[in-house]
């Protein structure tokens, strides 16, 4: 699912910050070696952190239904994760890098969720809004300076892009087939014995409202008139 989010980010940036196919969108770690090989204006979106959004964890099981609304299986609810990207611009001049970053901020800032036009088929199939935040201060446990130190490069202006996405949990649980026959009730007396010589049977129609019945009553204890 991570690579699907990568593709959605690429579509957004290429459609807004890099129009007309000018420049590239890269996902490699922006190390010194990578920077030395760069020969075109580039927006780098480096995935530097993956963490579960524990506050959104759910319990229980979800029901999956077919086109007729019948439950066919149950599965565990998805687990939500925060994907954090370090967005940087790379050109031969700082002023051009600032323009690229401004373009990236301008095309990402209006979106609180990933736009439908940028979603891949796999992300669309999730049928869930995917929250987006841009340039929000990171948690105290994550320092941008520490990230650059780990990459072995010099500190550059950057945007912190965070996207939340659900990851489906694999195990599924089969369910019993739907009920196709009505319920059967036995009518008895106050002390448990049959009300007549034999118990009466009341059959209800499947899918009927609670308390409704088909009116069919059977019982060998019915007495004939006369």
From TrEMBL:
Protein's UniProt name: DUF4255 domain-containing protein
- Region feature Disordered, mapped onto this chain: 193-226
- One Pfam family matching this protein: Pvc16_N
Q: Report the InterPro entries cross-referenced here.
A: Pvc16_N
* Start-end of Low complexity biased regions: 206-226
Domain (Pvc16 N-terminal): give its ranges: 4-181
Q: Which organism is this protein's natural source?
A: Streptomyces kasugaensis
